[in-house]
UniProtKB/TrEMBL annotation:
Residues 36-336 form the Aminotransferase class V domain. Keywords: Pyridoxal phosphate. The lineage of its organism: Eukaryota, Fungi, Fungi incertae sedis, Mucoromycota, Glomeromycotina. Transmembrane segments: none annotated. This is 7387_t:CDS:1. InterPro entries: Aminotrans_V_dom (IPR000192), PyrdxlP-dep_Trfase (IPR015424), PyrdxlP-dep_Trfase_major (IPR015421), PyrdxlP-dep_Trfase_small (IPR015422). Pfam families: Aminotran_5 (PF00266).
């Protein structure tokens, strides 16, 4: 008997399962995510339940509902249920970690030039607030770049920095998959190297859960944050903050909780009144994924489409994608045939045309002296979407 998932064919035929407009070409799942109708129904179900009796929910049910949701996701990423909490998004989770840690004179914070913009701002904020103590060490990561070359470069920087007197690298913020460009980063390989050098590993896994397999026990980072609303199909917004028991006493939410004295889980579970429904949609999201065929089927479809679709767009534009293929999972980066010296062209003009004139979506950014777009493959997209976007983007580029 065929398994249930084989009845779901990915591509355009999955569009009725989502709320997306018919004439919109959605190749930008990576920025905000989107969720299926069944998750929307679960979300509305929780909201209706809460509104039917807010007191019962907040005073009586919330704690156990959050526990059940944490239990479900803890199994999915192989972690103890008392080592994770929900936070609104990755930005909130990484803020909690970096603003909770204490910094001493000579501490250095390591990160790559591909760090997400708001996390770079956060690192600068930490430095400004500890200006006597903290130094930032940025490692240039210019793609195309092989995994080995990047790891070698990071190891070299760590060795050089360690030789300088009276300073130590306290922590490193590393991506699981960076944003611009959207490339897979070998964080699993780097964590043991960081640990050997007494450096705390903070993984910005904004794009991780639902895109790449995660076994947190095996990966064993010091801290990990991942958005469920991007690739896992929960309602927006919802993220997981992982803090192992050994670090929990020193990490607090950025917004102070009335339950600060009660420990990690209660403290993070209530940082003021909010709508908790999106966190509870984790059950529906995981059920949907199972029903349509499971993690491997989703991953394989998206990776294959990202590579084929990226190459299709690049061939229309007469350019190339960022490789090698092992840096690609669900997102692919394609060079635009526009010089950065062309001041007629800008990100804002591209986005205005994209949204107002053509109704498609990709991410656009400058990297290593070139303009790129980042296209996301999803189970509701197919090669025709990439081809259409290739022709539209060519028309836009030709107009400059
Ligand atoms: C690598 C990376 N880190 C952090 C973030 C921030 O995520 P959020 O806006 O959900 O906090 C993003 C968002 O796209 C990202 O790509």
């Amino acid at each position: 008997m065929p398994n249930e998932g084989s009845t779901f064919e990915f591509g355009r035929s999955m569009r009725p399962h989502f709320l997306l407009e018919d004439d919109y070409i959605p190749l930008n799942h990576g920025s905000y995510g989107t969720f299926p109708k069944v998750v929307r129904e679960a979300l509305q179900g929780y909201q209706n339940k809460i509104e039917s009796n807010p007191d019962k929910f907040m005073r009586r049910d919330l704690e156990s509902e959050l526990h059940k949701a944490r239990e479900t996701v803890s199994k999915f990423i192989n972690v103890e249920v008392n080592e994770i909490v929900f936070v609104q998004n990755t930005t909130t989770g990484i803020n909690a970690i970096l603003k909770s840690l204490k910094y001493e004179k000579g501490d250095k914070l390591l990160y790559l030039s591909t760090v997400y913009s708001s996390i770079r701002e956060l690192l600068m904020f930490i430095q400004e607030n500890n200006h006597e103590n903290v130094e930032l060490v940025e490692i240039e990561a210019n793609y195309p770049l092989s995994e080995d070359d990047l790891i070698d470069k990071i190891v070299r920087v760590i060795q050089e920095e360690n030789q300088k007197p009276n300073m130590r690298i306290k922590l490193a913020v590393i991506d699981s998959i960076s944003s611009n460009p959207g490339v897979v980063f070998p964080f699993q390989r780097l964590i043991p190297i960081l640990r050997q050098n007494d450096i705390l590993s903070i993984v910005d896994g904004a794009h991780a859960i639902g895109q790449i397999p995660l076994d947190i026990k095996e990966i064993n980072p010091d801290f990990f944050v991942t958005n469920c609303h991007k690739w896992l199909y929960t309602a927006r917004s919802s993220a997981i903050l992982y803090v192992p028991l050994k670090h929990q006493k020193k990490i607090h939410p950025t917004v102070t909780s009335p339950f600060t004295a009660d420990g990690f889980i209660p403290e993070f579970s209530w940082t003021g009144t909010q709508d908790f429904s999106s966190y509870l949609t984790i059950h529906a999201a995981l059920e949907f994924r199972k029903k349509i065929g499971g993690e491997e089927k989703i991953r394989n479809y998206c990776k294959k489409l990202a590579i084929e679709g990226g190459k299709k767009i690049a061939s229309i534009l007469g350019t190339e994608i960022i490789g090698p293929e092992n840096v690609i999972q669900n997102m692919v980066n394609i060079r635009l045939p526009i010089l950065v010296s062309n001041k007629e062209f800008s990100e804002k003009k591209f986005i205005d045309l994209m949204l107002n004139n053509y109704n498609f979506a990709v991410a656009i950014f400058e990297h290593n002296g070139h303009w790129y777009i980042r296209a996301s493959a999803q189970i509701y997209t197919d090669i025709d979407d990439f081809e259409k976007v290739g022709h539209i983007v060519k028309e836009i580029c030709d107009s400059f």
